[in-house]
Amino acid sequence: MEICRQNEALEIRELDPFLAELLRQIPESARPKDSLAAEERLFSPPAAPEEKVLRAEWKLYVVPELRRLFQSATETVRHDLQQLRCTDKPFANCTLCIPMVHADAWLSALNQARLAIAATCQFTDHELCDHYRSPLGSRRDLSLFQVNFYGFLQEFILREMEGGG
Amino acid sequence: MLTFFMNRPRRNGAAHCEILSGPSWTGVIDVPRSTLEMPTIEKQEATSEEIEMPWNVVVHNDPINLMSYVTMVFQRVFGYPRERAEKHMLEVHHNGRSILWSGVRERAELYVQQLHGYLLLATVEKIG
User: Fold this and answer.
1) What's this model's pTM, rounded to 2 decimal places?
2) CA–CA gap between residue B66 and residue A155 (Å, rounded)
3) DSSP state string for A127-153
4) What is the assigned CATH class of domain B53-126?
5) ipTM of the complex
6) pLDDT digits (tens, 9 = 90+) for A113-159
7) Interatomic CA distance for residues A137 and A133, integer angstroms
8) Residue boundaries of the structural domains of chain B
9) Which of B119, B124, B125 is the mutation pick for testing A, counting most A CBs within 10 A?
10) φ, ψ of residue B93 in degrees (nearest 5)
11) Is A72 left (phi over 0), alpha (psi -120 to 50) or beta?
12) Do B72 and A161 touch (CB under 8 A)?
């Protein structure tokens, strides 16, 4: 896999089917689904438990706004990911082009996915810092690899955003 | 702090002044009408607690958000220069939390809403 900046876009070339599949899973991974832990992390309380009124108003007025904001970002990413529908050669490497104007949406969607996965799997600090762990051992290891891979993409996008002024 | 609300004069010739709340009492007083009609004065004040007590915007550590990402968010939300944003980011990383801003409650809540939009763990905290 290669990532480079091409004018006003980021290009991810030579994406093998495994990594392409992980990218396709970003929008789904970003949705808390039935995970209460993920829901609580994505929509964390704005104040201590004794601030009951503030917390109740927050749920009523702010959380729906945040939900719309997050959903809008994942929809942008979902749209960009349509490039990965390699229907003619399903096992061929592909290329993904991310317009720089979508960089914020990608950062948000990747972050949502990382936070939701980590909260659902309840990764420990030790696991999150262990970058030499094999991704092939279990579903949990695969999820950890997903978190790290998405983090790598975030780093790259951030670097390019900074570099681009 | 005294909070009051003064209405238009009543038909019976008395200006009506409702004292909505005071330090230790609540009441309604009817006062005689003067020759000149009293202008309408509406005044509503927040409690001293709401006005004077500043609130902190606190960002808490989480092991997922990237350090570079958190720095960028602090620069964007608070307009801090990179050095200051990095200082706060490192404070969050090493101490588990950092106070990013202090001031009136409404603005503090707005900052927290923005920080939540970037998926950072942030809260408002009453000082004192």
Assistant:
1) 0.79
2) 8
3) HHH-TT--TTS-HHHHHHHHHHHHHHH
4) alpha beta
5) 0.92
6) 999 999 999 998 888 877 676 656 788 888 999 999 999 999 999 99
7) 9
8) 3-48, 53-126
9) B119
10) -65, -45
11) alpha
12) yes
